[in-house]
Amino acid sequence: MKNIRERLRKFILPIISNKIAIISFTIVVVAISLISYYNSQLGSVSNKDETIVFEIKSGESFDSVLSDLKANGLIKNEMIAKIYARLNGLTEVQANSYILNSNMGVKEILNVIHSGNFDYLAKLSITFQEGLNIKEVAKRLAEKTIYSDDEIIAYWANKTYLNSLIDDYWFLDNSILGTEIKFPLEGYLYPNTYIFSSDSLAIDVYTRAMLNEMNEQLSPLKDAIQATGMTVHEFLAFTSVVEQEGLHEQDKKMIAGVLYNRIANNMPFQCDVTVFYVLGKNEFNNYLSDVKIDDKYNTYKYLGAPIGPISNVSIVTMDAVLNYTRNDYLYFFAKQYTGEIIFTKTLSEHEKVAKENAWR
After folding, report:
1. How far apart are CA 68 and CA 327, in angstroms?
2. How far apart are CA 332 and CA 131, in angstroms?
3. What are phi and psi of 49, to 5 degrees?
């Protein structure tokens, strides 16, 4: 009997030992995997330098903040972030507007919003209205930052810098580098209100904020723009004319329809706003000589849209151009004080309206 027990012991113990070893090994592997996963989920969402304005409202719950962080592409996993916050006493957050970055990890983000770190607070708000040309955009930016208009314009004209932007943004191409283009980034800096952490950031930071917003607005329209047969550059040039000519959405759709009609009839746009862009002011010195200026932006002299955009444009105007109102008109006239647009089909009708409402 004793021999039997001894044999069983020698047979069973190795099996038990092996099972314990396997279980232990499995536990270690699982633990390492969980720790690895946990740490990976605490890492940054992206390696790219992309600033994001993140607002925490007064009284907002921590779970809601985590959900917003995830929705804004700032964290990978809400649950892991919550675990880390609880383990490190970071579940209380300070209401404020923060300038965060997609290359920040969970640890850094939670520490910032827990402490209300002053370095990350939004301190500067700049609004760029639709219809501003690039000189006006530069002036608005200069008013709010440490830079002068001339410094900003020069920065936006630097070819090395422009080529770096072309590499980074799908909607920018060599069209902006043409020798007859007055301002390469004209029309590409999206009009909106932007919030920044300082008035002394690199000009590139302010620029990319506007280009990133343009990317957000243009990307969903990519196929629709392609269907027009225009490049993005041509589309923005066309749209900028509509932006300048119309105040109201319904007018913009009609104006776009008129301009399409003029293209179909091989007629120049003959839009005063394009000559004003060339002149650098909103009035003619001498109407007859000014409209004959030999400049590719002058739609009295050259067919189709100008060689480049003449101002920034809003998503409303982009939509108006893509979903224009079909009509039989070839002319339109804007009343000086009301902005009311009068559409006509013939030159004689147009001249009659212009004479009755003359303001030049």
Report:
1. 45
2. 19
3. -85, 95
What backbone torsions phi and psi does residue 292 show, to the nearest 5 degrees?
-95, 5
Q: What is the residue-level pLDDT of the chain in tens, covering all 360 positions?
A: 556 556 545 655 566 666 666 776 677 667 776 677 888 888 888 888 888 889 898 889 999 999 999 999 999 999 999 999 999 999 999 998 898 999 999 999 999 999 999 888 888 999 999 999 999 999 999 999 999 999 999 999 999 999 999 999 999 999 999 999 999 999 999 999 998 888 999 999 999 999 999 999 999 999 999 999 999 999 999 999 999 998 888 899 999 999 999 999 999 999 999 999 999 887 777 677 788 899 999 999 999 999 999 999 999 999 999 999 999 999 888 876 677 888 899 998 988 988 887 654
Question: Cα 266–272–278 angle (5° rounding)?
Answer: 105
10 Å CB burial of residue 323 (0-12, 13-18, 19+) is exposed
Beta strand spans in the chain (E): 51-56, 96-101, 124-127, 193-196, 331-334, 341-344
**Six token digits for residue 341:** 């647009």
Cβ contact 211:228 at 8 Å: no
Rounded to whole angstroms, how far apart are CA atoms 204 and 232? 22
φ, ψ (nearest 5 deg) of residue 332: -150, 150
HSE toward the beta carbon, residue 184, CA cutoff 13 A = 25
Distance CA 71, CA 240 (A): 32
Task: Write the DSSP string, 244-303.
Answer: HH-SSHHHHHHHHHHHHHHHHTT-----HHHHHHHHTSSS-SSHHHHTT---TT-TTTSS
Structure tokens at 56: 């925490």
The amino acid present at 301, given as its one-letter code, is: K
Q: How many CA atoms lie within 13 A of 239 on its CB side?
A: 29
